């Protein structure tokens, strides 16, 4: 996989969140789900996995697809940052685990997202769930415009 700036170095978070928005533009359109992109980045800036909603299956969420690219025993996950264009979901009907719970099955210590999920489909508390479990969670609403643009058709 490719590499870029190390997470949390300078404005690396903005760099990687812009990549998640680019990935979200690859999502097959849906009237019932957000278009989301995700990148899992090792501490040295190596991309461990990338994904976007509906990448391999109509029910795929971006975080799920990106984490599928990484071996679950990859030791680099313990120092990685998961970047998502949208707050990781806290409930879903299409899979057993919502994305916040899926992230908690990994040692990923840091999650950064651009846009807190609006209550279009559910009331999301993914950020709170991750923080309560001891993960560092950073929201970058200054980078949310691109995410809103990709999902404008859902916002009416």
From TrEMBL:
Q: Which SUPFAM superfamilies match?
A: Cytidine deaminase-like (SSF53927)
What is the native source organism of this protein?
Nocardiopsis changdeensis
Where would I find the CMP/dCMP-type deaminase domain in this sequence? 11-137
The record ties this protein, via CDD domains, to: Riboflavin_deaminase-reductase
Q: Name one Pfam family in it.
A: dCMP_cyt_deam_1
What is the taxonomic lineage of the source species?
A: Bacteria, Bacillati, Actinomycetota, Actinomycetes, Streptosporangiales
Q: Which residues form a coiled coil?
A: none
PROSITE patterns in the cross-refs: CYT_DCMP_DEAMINASES_2
Q: Per its UniProt record, what InterPro entries does this chain match?
A: CMP_dCMP_dom, Cytidine_deaminase-like
The organism's superkingdom is given as Bacteria
According to UniProt, the name of this protein is: dCMP deaminase
């Amino acid at each position: 996989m490719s590499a870029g700036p190390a997470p949390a170095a300078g404005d690396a978070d903005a760099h990687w969140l812009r990549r998640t928005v680019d990935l979200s533009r690859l999502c097959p359109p849906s009237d019932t789900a957000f278009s989301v992109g995700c990148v899992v980045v090792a501490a040295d800036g190596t991309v461990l996995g990338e994904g976007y909603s509906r990448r391999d299956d109509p029910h795929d969420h971006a975080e799920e697809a990106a984490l599928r690219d990484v071996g679950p025993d990859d030791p680099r996950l313990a120092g990685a940052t998961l970047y998502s264009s949208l707050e990781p979901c806290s409930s879903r009907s299409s899979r057993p685990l919502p994305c916040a719970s899926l992230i908690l099955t990994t040692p990923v210590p840091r999650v950064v997202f651009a846009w807190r999920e609006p209550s279009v489909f559910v009331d999301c508390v993914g950020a709170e769930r991750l923080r309560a479990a001891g993960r560092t969670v950073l929201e970058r609403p200054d980078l949310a415009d691109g995410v809103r643009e990709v999902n404008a058709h859902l916002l009416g």
